[in-house]
Fold this sequence. Notes:
2 domains; 221 residues; 10 helices; three-stranded mixed beta sheet; Rossmann fold; globular; five-stranded parallel beta sheet
Amino acid sequence: MGKLIDGDNSLLDNDEFDKLDDQHSFGGPWTRIKLEALEKYLVAFNTALSKQSFTRLYIDAFAGTGRCDIKVDGEKKTVDGSARRALATNPAFHKFYFIELRTKKLAALNALGAEYPDKTIEVIKSDANAALKTLCGRYQWRSERAVLFLDPFGMHVEWSTLEAIAKTGAVDVWYLFPYAGLYRQAAKNADALDADKEASRLCNLFSVNFRGVGHDAGVTG
Length: 221
């Protein structure tokens, strides 16, 4: 997945994220650790379910280009991202969903179809929240199981999206939560929040406003 920079990208707010170029970006040693851990989990997941009749799905909500650049000891290296590692998983998934919004990254993802002609790949151009809610509603989740990789640049994942995922009861979620972005956006005192921040993704992230009253009945901050 080309966008893998959990350590650096969590510092970006949403406006800064929108200004990033369309190429895969830089990470560090933590990126490789994260990818290798994911890769091992995908193998274990498919192995555990391989004797059962479930249709196994892999969903990458911020799929990037399929590769990412990392810096190790000052040297740049290009490594396979989460999308390519998922495609190479053995036992294999039955279907892959790659969600991305930016044009150049979409082109790289679409090219994976020719590179992996034996795989069933659907590339979705969409906001991740909208696409994930649609996918959650597409299946009844009786005969399907999925792994969802959520590694956003900033605070792009909404609480309502997590609720939709949880309702399936059938999706294993890897969510790399943007702690640094949260700390950067949050104010120490709720009274210090301006109207723009109070209407920002902090509210959507937790489904809570900053006067102590939740958006939904019974939710308090």
